[in-house]
Every structure is written in structure tokens, then in C-alpha cells.
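Working notes for the structural subgroup meeting. M.R. asked for a predicted model of this chain before we commit to crystallization trials. I am recording the input and output together here so anyone reviewing the notebook later can reproduce the run.

Input as submitted:
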Amino acid sequence: MRKPPPSTLVLALVCLVAILSTQVAAFNTFTTLLHAGEEQCFKEVLKTKDRVDLSYEITDGGNLDVDFVVFAPGNRPLQSHNAGSFFTWGFNAEEDGTYTYCFNNKRSSFADKRILFTVVGPDEKWKIEEKEMKMSLEDDPTESLQSEIRVLDAGIRAIREEHAFLKSRERRHRMTADSTNSRVLYWSLVQALALVGVVYFQINYLKRFFEMRSGRSI
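Returned structure, recorded in C-alpha cell form:
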């Protein structure tokens, strides 16, 4: 029985990684509804030098703004962004422990906000392992292939997360453009109706004026 060529095996492995990374990436993008006056917090357990990238965008609700803050272990503020509609930030953990990031809608007393946010967890370990494996296992093609697949998996996940974020921004901008076009259309209709009313008033006024002049002349 003939064995498939190595290129076929590599292609199959790459496809498998792409499918798996699609499922993993989907779990890294979240949507939540933040009610008026509400605060929602999420936690990430990290080790020293773990890398985390956070990005969020307000897709619907009010003025499209919330307060965002990240706390290090010990409830120490690490980063904040007030009254923002979107924000992107990444950091390396300085110590082991639980890191908390919170969305706050206390500025609004009636408008709920819908938030799309993306969390990319610590992938830096894969890069370190990749370098170590290349240095110690250069003669093993199987290990080298697995290492390349890991790097490819991390890259695909990052691309999908960025695509989801950009897609959300494009949708929000399209909604803003549609809303602006509707307002321009309604304002144009109001102006047209006002113009018709002014013309009608001027015609009647001039008609009565000449009728009164004609009566006086007689």
C-alpha cells in the first residue's frame, strides 16, 4: 500500500490546525450586554511574563462609550480608558496572580451598551518553546513540523481575532453612515415641504394683493 507523499501529510496537518484554530479563536471573542449603571468584570490567571492582548468596541447603545480598567493582583490599577468607544491594549504580566479587567457603564442612567471584546491569551510560551525545540531537535523532522504547526496556529488565531475586531468596527461605522444618510434624507424632505409651503403662501399673497389692487382701481 502506497504511503501518501510528505507534502500531502503537511497539507492535511495544516488544514486540521486551521479548523482547530477556528474553533479556539471563536471562544476568544465575546459579546456582552452591559446594562445602565452596571459593571462587569472578567479574570485572567497569569504567570510572570505571560502576554495578554485585549481589545473591545461598543457596537450599540447610547453614546457608544464605557469606562474600562485593568487591575493587577492586589486590586492595583494597571490601565484605564474612560468614556471610550473602542480600545486596544496589551501587556506582559509582572507577577503571578489573577488579573481583572472591568467594563463600567455607570455614566449612563438609561442606555444599555453592547460590547464586543477579544482576549488573546499567553502565546509567548509557544514562541519560547519553538526556539528551544529548534535548537535541540533540529535533526528530528517530526518535531520540527509540530513546531511549525504551533507557530502557524498562533498566527491564524491572531489573524482571526484581528479580523473579528475590524469586522465589528466596520459594522458600527456602516450603522453610523446609514443613520447619517437617513437624517439627511429626512432633513431634505422637511426643507422641500417648507419650500412648497413658502411658495404656496407667496402665490396666495400675491394673488390677493393684485385682487385688492384691481378692486381699488375700479
